[in-house]
Amino acid sequence: MPEARILIVEDEPKLVRLISEVLTAVGFATLSTARGERAVEMVALEQPDLIVLDVLLADQMDGFEVARRVREFSSLPIIMLTAKARESDLLRGFEVGADDYLTKPFSSKELLARVRAVLKRSRQEVTGQTEAEISCGPLRIELARRRVTRDGQEIHLTRTEYNLLHELASHPNQVLLHEQLLTAVWGVEYRNDLDYLRAYIRYLRHKLEPDPANPCLIVTSSGVGYMLECPEEV
Ligand code: CA
């Protein structure tokens, strides 16, 4: 049994071949199509475990439309491929229900990391595991008590600081866009208030980072967002 079946939707044969080789080398099975309409059909008929979906398809239906159509009947994870770090593309991708994105060109390592992370998240959701706590390196977040410790030492956070940390920790090792974080923590009407976010990231770093000037837990993805960096569990 393959580890998971992955549908690749991309109109550049070379890239399809490359992605497929990377994935099958580690035990995934792949199927592919260059056409948007066909991709939607294949999701319904073949029931893959994940889609790697290019935004630009030489087809009437682009990747956004494919994602939107798929979301009408399926919650399977979608990783979108974008040509470059165009924030508008990323946001649009999330709006239509993509789970993550990869910017071209990407390395095989990045591809595998995203695929595994997204599959892991979706499996946790499927089994309905509501974790009682989240661990990330030296940090532990006890969700029921809204209590945070670092190396066993309790750290007092304000409500907003806690909410921001919780949001970051719910998607470890994943860059969350400024707008995503602002919307999740403050509400959609604050999604452009980057100053709020910067201030609270600074507060959190002061409380959590060993050296706030050189953050190693809450890392900046310049111009895009922030990520909570957690060592991989083995
Ligand atoms: Ca393409």
What's this entry about, in short?
With 234 residues, the chain is of the alpha/beta class.
Plain-language structure description:
The chain folds into two domains: 5-127, Response regulator (Rossmann fold, 3-Layer(aba) Sandwich); 133-228, Winged helix-like DNA-binding domain superfamily/Winged helix DNA-binding domain (Arc Repressor Mutant, subunit A). The chain has helices at residues 13-25, 36-46, 63-71, 87-95, 108-126, 159-169, 178-185, 194-208, and strands spanning 5-9, 29-33, 50-54, 78-82, 100-103, 133-136, 139-142, 147-150, 153-155, 176-177, 218-221, 225-228. By secondary structure, the protein is an alpha/beta fold. The chain is built from eight helices and twelve strands. The model has no long low-confidence stretch (mean pLDDT 88). It binds calcium ion (CA). Calcium ion (CA) binds at residues 10-12, 54, 56-57.
CATH topology of the largest domain: Rossmann fold
The class by helix and strand makeup works out as: alpha/beta
- Bound small molecules, deduplicated: calcium ion
End-to-end Cα distance, whole Å, is 22 Å
CATH-defined superfamily of the largest domain: Response regulator
**What's the gyration radius in Å?**
19 Å
H/E series, N to C?
EHEHEHEHEHEEEEHEHHEE
What would the principal axes of the Cα set say about the shape? Answer: elongated
- What share of the residues lie within helices? 40-55%
